[in-house]
Amino acid sequence: MWLVLNPLLLSGVYFILIVIIGGTTDSARYVHLTASLFLFYLVANSLTGGVKSITAGQRLILNTAFPRIMLPISAVVIAIFKFIPTLIVFLVIKAIMGSQFSIEMLWAIPILMITLFLALGLSITISCINVYFRDIASFLPYLTRTLLYLSPILYEASALNPNLKALEIVNPLFPILDSWSRALVHGEVPQTSSMLQGLAWATGIFFIGTYFFLSREREFAVRL
Amino acid sequence: MSSLSASKLQKTNELAVSIKNVGLTYTTAIDRRPTLKARVKALGRGGKQTRVVRALDDINLDIEYGQVLGVIGTNGAGKSSLMRCVAGILPPTQGRIEVYGSVSTLLALGVGFNPSMSGRDNVFLGGLAAGMSREEIEGHFDEIADFSELGEAIDAPMRTYSSGMYARLAFSVAATVRPDILIIDEALSTGDAKFKEKSLNRVKELRSDQRALILVSHAMQTLRETCNDVAWLHKGQLIQRGEPNQVIDAYQEFLHLGKSAAIDEDV
User: Cβ–Cβ of B129/A134 closer than 8 Å?
Assistant: First the structure.
């Protein structure tokens, strides 16, 4: 129940924001907003779930031997289970709004894979950082909020002021969300360069984070 | 690991755990919590505020199958640290630990339990955390429920349990695991006198030629009854090891306590 209601209310709140600030009541904008917002929350939930996964699992870590990396991975799995109902909500919204369904929408599948890869990498990295700097957990809400505004969610990627193009390069979610919206909302084939850029970010974060995690893993029991 | 437990012919006197020259040092931060803020402040002061604790110092210990080893020592002697090293939770700073077989640890009761879920669900959670498969837990479920004596309460959420009920269920789950090497760290003192007796009997049942048991306890009488070998640790060093009565007598003499009731009574 709340799994469906939550994303609906969330997209409703942000749509009000768009209407007031942007002054548009375009239904395509609403479809774009819901699609992007739900994918963004998949990543954000992985981060918020992952950040405390190691420190909260203290008892488990001190008393049993198991691969510690399972803790941040399980945070991503939980985020995926929260994401699935929102995907269904999105498809219903898209149908109601009279937006066209097309075969190009299947491009969303590889984009989703890249997103999951990125979410996994971020979750593993941040869970490890939080062991050494416990106050990261307090910064995180502001970090995700900033990321939300820097990503093409409340606006379309193409509408971004050219002077702010630098944001595209430093934000791993930018190319991913752009491709996602192109495929799911507009039924276009996403740009190969965007997808490759997203994949590069995801791979980089995943491997650096996992290396960092695995090399520090044995120390966690002492650090907790 | 599985190949070892599969070939259960006669393992008596085969080496189960070999601990060679093991040392362990902790570097603990004096700061209460490691934070970015604290790190930045430390930059201003210069130097890290840490304290080095030598928890284990050159320990040599071999444990064979069929042995029930009791580990004794005062608080802070390094008993739990040694057990965590054997279980593979803490990496030793120096030396080498070889383990031949599957290890299960009972270092703390109720690891992996979720208080908002029912006792029934927690049996599965705890069992999975202890390394059992879902099928194994299902097969042993009735046995666990009977042993815990919870009756109908097994379906109530665990936050409604008394601490005794909680500990009873936790011990019941833990006692169902059948590993090659079992480490029990002061987990026996749970529940009322009747349940203590029952759990002690369960530990005695677990003694077998195919298994190595390591008991960490302050209950000297229990150790005299159950163990066939006792190791005494003090300040990270192995002081004495051998026949239970002899080592325990030496330890009690060291404590100047003699045979007082306080150490004999608690199981």
Answer: no
